[in-house]
Amino acid sequence: MIRLLPPYSFLLIALALSACARSEEIDSSAREVAFLSEDENLIIAFKRTGQVEFLAPIEEGTCYLLGTGSYDADRLIDHDGTIYGYEIEGAELYLDDPTHDLLTGVYRRVNLRSICQARQPDPGENSASVQPLPLSGIEGSGATKKRSAEFDVDEDTIAISVYLFGREVGTRARPTAFLAPDGGNLLVELPDISFCDAGYCALMLPRNEAIPVEPGRYRVEISGPEEYLEEIDARLATRKGAVFDRTRIPLRTVVASTTLTDDEIDQTIDGIVASFEASPYAIELTPTEVVRADAKYAEIVADFRSAAIEELFALGDAKALNLFLIDRAVGIPGLLGLAAGIPSSQGIRGPFNGVIVAVQTHRTGAGVLSTEVLADSSAHELGHALGLFHTTEEDGLLHDPIADTPECLPEHDINGDGSLTAKECEALDGFNMLFWTPVYEDGTFAKQDEISIEQADVLRHAIIGVE
Ligand SMILES: [Zn+2]
User: Are 75 and 13 in the same domain?
Assistant: First the structure.
């Protein structure tokens, strides 16, 4: 979901790794504590599960998840396998970063909730295709409790999404069951039906051709500590009627960048439309008006819970794909683009319905902009917004739930650096729109406009698709 230029990616994971492996061992004596670096740019949080989270505090009440890892008695291990030594003495953490030396230092203990979880944006306004989904009262005993919702799906319905919003949604409060009319738990059958980011989860059908929408009663269960279940806002989006020969999806472009010319904007939009035209089922992105946003949003923190994003995304449209072109993502210098969710909250005008694409990372050293690459990055993020995962993740171990996209495996990592490039996967999915990165080792970009038949089938079921 997050696309970066290489030098900055060492600590950053693709947030699409919702199914990432967690440590099975739980140390009952382990505490849940967090420490802030001296320059106040990095928080390391120790979870009871044996996991660590690396977080960047970005503004009052919001932190950005940079990556995750695990810990034992005296070592932290990040997602790349880099090992850090640590020691906790009272309110201080001493960290030794022998690989980069960047993180070495003394960290002071802080209250994670007061720094990172104070803010919750308004999820936004529903269009006609979205309705509130009433949740049950809090059920169950013990530390982990449950809330649920049931809804009926008729014969006409071809696509459904359940959106969950809340301060701890995606972190401590998560969907744990999605029961189909036949009683089967779809999250067991296909965990990728659910995707969570901080503050937002989306359950979506269809995610592939294997599990279509069936008529009947569905049930969603959300589990977590009681205090985090109270504040969940759930919505149900549905699309009824036929699948069309040609599916049109409105595209709204909001330009906060101060460096893009009108011609460059037009070329970029043309490029995005052309990319989707290559789809094996006809997908036509129909550009609506281009809106210029206030220049104060040109450089913005790429966190969808922030106040700035909430304001900027209010310029979006509930019934369109919303593309926000900014100049630069503050704090993430290599950010190419970022989607608010997989899918975004289509049908709702709000902070989780849109994608951000940064213009400056698409310029060469001489400042020349490639609108073709900018269009490709935008198309990739819009693919996420429509519910598509990366065909292959960086390590080659995780792949999308789509049957007909080739899987590039770790054995294709020819130079053995643990990171698959489009070049290394060129005979497979290196040119797919949803390959995890477009960047070659020499810094040039791959042209990625392939869409498989089954990916196209997901696209044509978009909640906001029209004839
Ligand atoms: Zn991506």
Answer: yes
Tens of pLDDT, residue by residue over 36-60, are: 999 888 999 998 888 898 888 877 6
- Residue with the larger pLDDT of the pair 176 and 28: 176
Q: Which own/partner pairs from 85-92 qualify as long-range (CB within 8 Å, at least 24 positions apart)?
A: 88/33, 88/35, 92/35
* CA 84 to ligand 1 centroid distance, Å: 28
Helix residue spans in 180-241 (DSSP H): 186-189, 226-229
Q: Using the mean position of ligand 1's atoms as its centre, give its distance from the Cα of residue 106 in Å.
A: 34
Give residue 219 CA to ligand 1 midpoint distance, Å: 30
pLDDT one-digit tens code per residue, 333-381: 788 999 999 999 999 999 999 999 999 999 987 889 999 999 999 999 9
Can you read off the two tokens belonging to residue 60?
Answer: 């009052």
Residues 69 and 141 in one domain: no
Centre of ligand 1 to C-alpha 105, Å, is 32
- Domain with residue 170: its CATH number is 2.60.120.380
Please report whether residue 466 resides in a domain.
no
Same domain? 173 vs 139: yes
Residue 172 CB coordination number (10 Å): 16
Same domain, 259 and 201: no
pLDDT in tens, 407-436: 999 999 999 999 999 999 999 999 999 999
